[in-house]
Structure formats: structure tokens, C-alpha cells
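Hello K.,

You asked for the raw outputs rather than the summary table, so here they are, unedited. I folded two proteins back to back in the same session to keep the settings identical. This is the first:
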Amino acid sequence: MLNKIIVFSIKNKLVVGIFILGLIVWGGYSLSKLPIDAVPDIM
């Protein structure tokens, strides 16, 4: 199973790159919508 994922990722770098870029954009959007109370105070 893991071998098939690795082979697919190597053969389809563009698809994997677009998927990762989409995840980054989605994460940034989710972070911007996060309430201030949910972000820990690290300072």
C-alpha cells in the first residue's frame, strides 16, 4: 500500500504539488478564521 503511494507520488509530482499547495491555502484560511481564544499565548 505504501509502495503504491510512493510510486504514484514520484510519477505525478504536479498532482501532489497542487494537492499540497491546496492544503497550505486551506490551512491558512482556517487559521485566519480561528477565534483568538483558540490560539495559545506563547509569549
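The second followed immediately with the same parameters:
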Amino acid sequence: MTPERIEQLAAVLKQKRQELGLSASEVARQTGLDVGTISRIERGQIAAPQAGNLKEIARVLQIPATDIFAIADLLPEGELPTFKPYLRAKYGDLPDDAMAELEASFTRIAKQHGYDGNGPAPGEDEN
């Protein structure tokens, strides 16, 4: 992972944990990981966190694992993240309220056009 991705991952995980009102100790308890591991990931001190650890942290923080994997550059071939990590990667300098506004606009437009959030069925978008 690049230093920028490490920093971005750390910031996303810490912000979401705080939004949920969880301590690092509580995240550790719910994931079965050591609290030191959680803290080091949130401080950007682990350059290559294990995918399994990230998946467990994402589960507790109610973040799609694909979003975390996209930030960490661990996304499996053919998997796509939700819109929010794309916005953060492409427009990371925008303030959080602008990001939230963009995401809300996308969600509203997608719903107007019948998008259910599941994407195409296997083979549906291949030509």
C-alpha cells in the first residue's frame, strides 16, 4: 500500500468507529483482534494489514468489505466498491460535507432510475 492509501484507510476506519461511538477496545472485542492491532491500523502504522483483519473490522464498523479492500488496494479481480470510496479516491481533497452531498445525490439519482444497489447479474454487462 502507498503511504496515501495507508493514511486514507486509517482515517476512514477511525472516523467510522467514532461515528458509531465505539472505542478501539470494543472493536477489538467484537473482531477478536488485539486492541493494539486496531490502534496501529488506525494510526497508519501497519503498511499491509491482513485482509482477514480488515474484513472483520469492516464488519464491525458496518462498512462493505469491498470498500475497505478498494482503499487498501486489495480488491479482488472483478469486484467493485460502492460509490463513496471512489469519491474519496478521486476527490479526496473535498470536505466531508461535499462528499456526503455527492453520495446523497448519486443515491437519489440511482433510485430515480430504478437502481437497487446490486449491480448487473453475472454476464449481464459483458459484451
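Residues 3-19 form the longest helix (17 residues).

Happy to rerun anything if the numbers look odd on your end.

Regards,
P.
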